[in-house]
């Protein structure tokens, strides 16, 4: 009776439901995406569900991680999810792994499952999941979110493209903020995770068109969907496979989300008395930047003059075109001034921006 | 030719719009990107892929399409 509404669909039937109950699906992460993925797959009767998550439930998770309640606070997410899912469907097997996914444990774990669903929240894990799926030849149901937008795809399915065929390498650390830094609309992972659960069921049942070789881009504010075609890149796939033997030994430095990129745009910084600007151009170069306090230290005199930079304040270094300032920041870091950044804009653009900012401020009469 | 350029994620935050129309006379995707980089200096810091008429393309691809999309990676979950 439990699966009656599946079985009466001619596209599924008893045969399809039996396939669902024989399927083994591993969810990476039981967070914003993992919760709806797991909820629908458990309800659908996926026979074996694996959940790997090292994190614990925090009050700020409850806005979107719908498997948890206040009683789960402080518990490991994989274990707390199992508690709820076992109540939802006691006929299925739920394996929990309350640990971090690593290069060391990924291959052996993935080999025990038919389909991997990625609901992780950082690039390090996403590339690890992709590469382990390529090596173990498992389909990967991918979903990721940013504020009000989501991306969904099925990678590594029947010789289709992998995530690296779309984005060959992870972006630089700190270049893309995550949900905890920038926020996310609570219902968005519900929508994207549910789309991922839908792809998993289509793969198990062999019905419809699996989202392989395509990336779906969803915008919750405009309700616009874009489906973009992705080609398989043999080069990207082989770059993973040739490293197969050493995969388990790889160690990736944990990504520190707080790291700020060394280069920044003037439009991204808050101008106040706690920051300082450093002009590394030669004395004759024009225009001078006005309206903020600027320390003049030509690049050629950096080693002698850098002591004029206050190490307790953030230093924003600029020049004429953004090249010398990058060199200056590298050298300053070697000299022990770590709180410094290179502005990508040159002096003229910085002036334009500062002038526009001053004009925007209401003038008191 | 007249192009519709669509921006996603952080790219749309830099350009301050989801979409714009541009008249452009260059031949390659890379030439269009040069123009966009000069228009939006913040793009230099961002990683993204380019799609032309809903298909992912490389920088040396000839411009033939009416619709171009700039697509950054997301990792949130």
TrEMBL record, chain A:
Pfam families in the record:
Rhodanese (PF00581), ThiF (PF00899)
User: What Gene Ontology terms describe what this protein does at the molecular function level?
Assistant: ATP binding; molybdopterin-synthase adenylyltransferase activity; sulfotransferase activity; thiosulfate-cyanide sulfurtransferase activity; ubiquitin-like modifier activating enzyme activity
Please tell me one Gene Ontology term that the record gives under cellular component: cytosol
Q: Keywords assigned by UniProt?
A: ATP-binding, Nucleotide-binding, Nucleotidyltransferase, Transferase
Q: Which residues form the Rhodanese domain?
A: 271-350
The EC number of this protein is: 2.7.7.80
User: Does the record carry Transcription regulation as a key word?
Assistant: no
Family recorded in the similarity comment = Belongs to the HesA/MoeB/ThiF family.
Which NCBIfam families does this one have? Answer: PRK05690.1
Q: What does this protein do?
A: Catalyzes the adenylation by ATP of the carboxyl group of the C-terminal glycine of sulfur carrier protein MoaD.
> What is this protein's record name?
Molybdopterin-synthase adenylyltransferase
Organism, as annotated: Pseudotamlana haliotis
Automatic annotation (TrEMBL), chain B:
InterPro entries to which the protein is assigned, alphabetical: Beta-grasp_dom_sf, Mopterin_synth/thiamin_S_b, ThiS/MoaD-like
SUPFAM superfamilies the record matches? MoaD/ThiS
Q: Which domain of life is it from?
A: Bacteria
Protein's UniProt name: MoaD/ThiS family protein
In its UniProt entry, the species of origin is given as Pseudotamlana haliotis
Upper lineage is: Bacteria, Pseudomonadati, Bacteroidota, Flavobacteriia, Flavobacteriales
